[in-house]
Amino acid sequence: MSNYKIALIRGDGIGPEIVGEAVKVMDKVGQVYGHQFSYVDVLMGGCATDAVGKSYPDGTAELCKSCDAVLLGAVGGPRWGSDKPAQQRPETALLAIRKDLGLFTNLRPAAMRKGMEDASPLKRETAQQGFDIMMVRELTGGIYFGKRERYQTEDRGQEATDLMAYSEMEIERIGRKAFELARLRRHKVTSVDKANVLATSRLWREVMHRLAAEYPDVTYEDMLVDNCAMQIVRNPGQFDVVVTENMFGDILSDEASQVTGSIGLLPSASLGASDPGLYEPIHGSAPDIAGQNKANPMATILSVAMMFRYSFGLAAEAQAVEDAVDSVLQSGWHTADIAGDGDKLVGTVEMGRLICDAIR
Ligand code: IPM
Ligand code: MG
């Protein structure tokens, strides 16, 4: 019997509803496999701005660090938009928690699930061939964390700059994660950069080549980011692990998730050198359907499976959750976001119950 303490950032919009179902799934896994999960609520996001005036209250990181893992529903919404001061915006909190917890590795798997082919915007035959990409995005460096400036020029009006910087240390540690992951999968790494233009990308490529020599059992290739964006829609089946810097990864992971046809099903993990890791669905807070029992809890529940696998080393438990989601999907139970003709439409709570019942 093991005990695990999990920080819950329920957040905004549909966040509280989907986290609620994920908690029921964890409790069910606990019963079946003999684990004890306990929970600590952590206030962060727009709801924190409303309650205490800032999206990232003092002590948030410390509270999370006192836990074994963090589960995040979703943060953000139109009420806390880009016209608001930085400390009130939910995005500020997201970037801050990644930095404070040292979460430099972001795993965003994007795979074609059986039965979802018709929902994919890909060509029918491409969708039917299937794909299974593990997108590895560097999460605490590059242009999202570089120095920003805005100033007045003499003759060109205002000017703004954002600095993109990467050190060998930052590139090597994310690269190593990618190669290690490839060893657990299909032994292929595609490193995405813009080395024909950017200095950061040339350094990136040099470091990746050094690592590739250390992993001779892994097939390695470089790919330019613009080409990669095309390849994801042309032939996504060619990819196994894709590793890239922060901004390219932000963009490409949205593209890869969309071509699965099931963005409501995609989980993610953000990991550092030590615990806690942070797990969250890749979709947002969907304020338009919040509080209506319509949201799909599957991406959050699959994020719990990633937590079991990557933070707790509970592979069988992770598999049980993933199998439960698959079996419910294949029985034709769908929430509104993925429901088609002839499907059995269910709400958030019913979907959570179906998945719990499928875990034995
Ligand atoms: C994501 C989001 C964030 C990011 C935003 C909200 C800061 O787009 O997690 O991909 O760009 O990292
Ligand atoms: Mg994004």
Structure overview:
- With 360 residues, the chain is α/β, with parallel strands linked by helices.
- It has two domains: 1-111 and 263-360, 3-Layer(aba) Sandwich (Isopropylmalate Dehydrogenase), CATH 3.40.718.10; 132-258, Isopropylmalate Dehydrogenase, CATH 3.40.718.
- It has twelve helices and 14 strands.
- The strands form three sheets. Strands 2-1-3-12-11-4-5-10-8-9 form a ten-stranded mixed sheet, sandwiched between helices. It has a two-stranded antiparallel sheet with strand order 6-7.
- Strand 1, helix 1 and strand 2 form a beta-alpha-beta unit.
- The longest helix is centred in the N-terminal third of the chain and has 19 residues, at 15-33.
- The radius of gyration is 20 Å and the shape is globular.
- The mean pLDDT is 96.
Write the layout of secondary structure elements.
Elements: E1 2-11, H1 15-33, E2 35-41, H2 46-52, H3 60-65, E3 69-74, H4 90-100, E4 105-111, H5 124-129, E5 132-138, E6 148-152, E7 158-162, H6 168-183, E8 188-193, H7 199-214, E9 219-224, H8 225-234, E10 241-244, H9 246-259, E11 267-271, E12 277-281, H10 298-310, H11 315-330, E13 333-334, E14 344-345, H12 348-357
Parallel strand pairs: 1-2, 1-3, 3-12, 5-10, 8-9, 8-10, 13-14
Antiparallel strand pairs: 4-5, 4-11, 6-7, 11-12
Bound molecules: 3-isopropylmalic acid (IPM) and magnesium ion (MG).
Magnesium ion (MG) binds next to helix 9.
